[in-house]
Write a structure and sequence with these properties.
single chain; mainly alpha; Arc Repressor Mutant, subunit A; 6 helices; 2 strands
């Protein structure tokens, strides 16, 4: 047994993870009801909306999701006809993912919801707290 116990409720990585999960969960309720997609699917859509033509591995890297989660999300989105897959002309082993027309429409509807949700969250903070939060997150991400 270590001399100093781990106070999980005060442990920064745990607190950040719990906060992120609660925030993502609250947001996901908005798009789960409306579009029938979960957090992993939304993250794939968001990445492809911003960066069309990514591979599943690139989506995994950008979103910090594991490859299995991305693979399942991609399969679910393909089944719902929200994304399209095409072979990379330069490397036939790679599949490039893009939003379908239906996926573009979902993206166009979800983005304002997500940005509104973000605005509501940030409205709880003062301008100085928002700036401090941005700065702290940037430092921790380094």
């Amino acid at each position: 047994m270590p001399k100093t116990p781990l106070l999980l409720e005060n442990f920064l990585p745990y607190r950040i993870s719990v906060a992120a999960n609660r925030i993502s969960g609250a947001l996901s309720r908005h798009y789960a009801e409306r579009f029938g997609i979960g957090i992993p699917e939304w993250r794939v859509i968001a990445n492809l909306g911003r960066y069309p033509g990514l591979t599943a591995n690139e989506v995994a890297e950008r979103s910090a999701m594991d490859k299995v989660t991305v693979s399942r999300a991609v399969a679910a989105l393909e089944q719902k006809k929200l994304i399209a897959r095409r072979r990379d002309a330069g490397d036939k082993r790679k599949s490039l993912l893009t939003l379908s027309a239906k996926g573009d429409a979902v993206y166009a509807e979800i983005v304002p919801l997500a940005l509104g949700f973000e605005r509501e969250l940030l409205a709880r903070l003062t301008p100085q707290e928002r700036q401090a939060l941005d700065s702290a997150i940037a430092k921790l991400m380094e």
